[in-house]
Automatic annotation (TrEMBL):
It is found in: Plastid, Chloroplast. Keywords: Chloroplast, GTP-binding, Ligase, Magnesium, Metal-binding, Nucleotide-binding, Plastid, Purine biosynthesis, Transit peptide. Binds 1 Mg(2+) ion per subunit. The gene is PURA. GO terms for biological process: 'de novo' AMP biosynthetic process; IMP metabolic process. This is Adenylosuccinate synthetase, chloroplastic. Its cofactor is Mg(2+). Its EC number is 6.3.4.4. It is an enzyme of class 6 (ligase). It catalyses: IMP + L-aspartate + GTP = N(6)-(1,2-dicarboxyethyl)-AMP + GDP + phosphate + 2 H(+). GTP binds at residues 75-81, 103-105, 368, 394-396, 477-479. Pathway: Purine metabolism; AMP biosynthesis via de novo pathway; AMP from IMP: step 1/2. SUPFAM superfamilies: P-loop containing nucleoside triphosphate hydrolases. The active site is at residues 76, 104, 204.
Amino acid sequence: MSLSTVNHAAATAAAAAGSGKSFSSAAPAAPSVRLPRRWSPAAAAVSAAAVGADPAADRVSALSQVSGVLGSQWGDEGKGKLVDVLAPRFDIVARCQGGANAGHTIYNSEGKKFALHLVPSGILHEGTLCVVGNGAVIHVPGFFNEIDGLESNGVNCNGRILVSDRAHLLFDLHQAVDGLREAELANSFIGTTKRGIGPCYSSKVTRNGLRVCDLRHMDTFGDKLDVLFKDAASRFEGFEYSKSMLKEEIERYKRFAERLEPFIADTVHVLNEYIQQKKKILVEGGQATMLDIDFGTYPFVTSSSPSAGGICTGLGIAPRCIGDLIGVVKAYTTRVGSGPFPTELFGEEGDLLRKSGMEFGTTTGRPRRCGWLDIVALKYCCEINGFSSLNLTKLDVLSGLSEIKLGVTYNQPDGQKLQSFPGDLDTLEQVQVKYEVLPGWQSDISSVRNYSELPLAAQRYVERIEELVGVPVHYIGVGPGRDALIYK
């Protein structure tokens, strides 16, 4: 039996023992996959009737075997909270891309706050197995710092996290290169978190990167790492490199290799085996579609694919296995770093949203740029991902505004309407946004738990979003806590 198989068996047995769930090795027939259907107002009444008296339980239990939670703006939409809420109904929660630049803030049942970065948001649920897939990049020291922090706060991680042997290793040198690269770009910098994510993915694509499985071959590990160091030193004048640095890093990673070994598994095999066994898998995306390397506002994007395609390439799951995809979207729009932002608010209006929504990065603490909800960008994200439903978050932040705007169309300077979200940044930076103005509501909605109890203006806002994008809103966030969620 291979070492990865032993690790897989041990991890799954531990997860099963903690939850009472059975992870049988027998593989029944392949499960049927329910594909999402396009939403329409006419179908909404039928859907609502089907939900029954307990929309929370019925909505979640009806989700397909392999479901996903993806960001549908520029990140920071609140994906972690929804994953945390849905996780008890799933056997596995898996990250498919990104690294520790993703920041997911969640609260446990006692209201204690946890800031996660690489560890999937299902970790607070004892019976859930967490997987970091091959599409992610792993900064091992940061990974263990995160685990140590969870353990010190009473969260058991033993046997509950698997890391793909195909995932790429992110080294401190990648973080140094990230900072040097941003400094080199000067006034046209990307605005990265400087966590080394981009340089690590660059190493992956250049094919001189190191993967988790390389930690099992320390006899050749040093030679491969030497290539990375030399490449960075030849590219950046400010990058310091010496043989003593290399030796120190090799010794450091020898210790990391021993500690990481119990976490390493062939996660492609693990996940596909679970699919055959009809276990339920929830995929947690990092960042969001508008930061996708292909579909985002390039070059002001991340270095991976946070859209639906990244699930297949980042986990090794076939497209036909993927069912429901939930797009998470704030009731307004934010982004961090540089890049175009058509509906951005400046001055007091932007400051008001930032303060009310506590819009500061989980990972970096950076203040986020804020603006009205961009329907053009949201429709674009819905088209790319084929969302079956939306999770509208932070609706409570809009309380107290006399009016609320939706950016419904983009027009060129000559007045011509754009038919889609443009890929050309020169065009995007010149667009004139046409807004639809809706009345606001004055009451605090943070304690509301039933949709019918929302102010009529808030209901109208939610329903207008549904009408404009053609996707139903099934989950509405009205606060940071687990229970601050309305099922529609």
